[in-house]
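Backbones bend. Shown next:

***
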Amino acid sequence: MRKAFQIVVFVIVILASSSAYSQLDDDCGYTFSNNHHRYVNCNPLPTLDSYLHWNYHPSNNTVDIAYRHTGITSSNWVAWSLNPNGPHMIGAQCLVAFVNSTGIPHPFTSPITGYTTMLQEGPLSFGVPRIAAEFRNNTEMIIYATIELPPGRTNFTHIWQHGIVSSSGAFKAHSMAPQHLSSFATIDFATGKSIDTSSPGGGVSKTQRLRNIHGIINVVSWGMMMPLGAMMARFVKVFQPLNPVWFYLHVTCQTLAYLLGVAGWATGINIGSRTPGIVRNVHRNIGITLFTLATLQVMSLGLRPKPDHKYRTFWNFYHHSIGYSVIALSIGNIFMGFDILDPEKKWKRAYIIFLIVIGAVAVCLEVLRCFVVIRRKREASKLPQTVNADNVA
């Protein structure tokens, strides 16, 4: 009886252990091919629909990993890397995989030594005695590898990415959307602890927060207040009872827009200094041009001739040309910023609706303005002409 009881207990323990092991293996709800390891640990990564599975072997400080990247196609490359030096692109030791021209997944290692890397194949700073890749269901790439960790270390920054493979086989740069720029975390292979280091507590990173602030300030200042200020000067001044109220409204609105715009421009400079490897040449150059033109516009107010001055016509032409150029460049740069920042589509749609509304209002006010100006000219033509006494015979 006692022996039978021991056998029952033994079977229960075995089944419980098997169940626990299976539960750990299915932590991410995934079953691997039979010819690969069962992975005790799994972490769903915070961005890019990716997962990291691993087994750590303390006896020789090695780790077997399976990196899964879902939601991709055969025209994508994927990469997972460790960077012993921290959350940086330079120094990352990458495991890369893509589907080659024969339709077979090709894995390789690639150390990153600069921001202009093309993910060239090469040895890493630590050993990788085994690497393989599997492309499943035409939507998921899996990189399998055994990594010989540096002596005495189990905690690292890891980074993951995906990009496009061109028709010529060249690796194109990954997207600069927020989810790509925040695809890094820390991982401790011994304890299983993983921390999203893109920001404290897994929220928005400081750099991403700056990007959001930069976008909001510039949309409000350059993209909304500047056009509204121009509309005040164009349409309000035609109503004589509002003279010179329109002028002060125009100056106040444009000055506030300029000050906010300078703050937005400064945040852009700060973002550039934080991300030296990410250069948005066109967006940056338009921003510098806007700042320069707007500064000239503000400075030129001190040189504004009186209404009856002979150079007033030239000044008006300069003032209007610079002003409308700033507005046109601002709107174009804002849409470029939307593409870079890649926020929820509702924000871009909201700005488009704003432009449509003020555009429709501007058309209506322009018609009203023309009507008022024409009527005023007709009334002026009906007034008796003043006769010069010197010309009377």
Remarks:
- The longest strand covers residues 155-164.
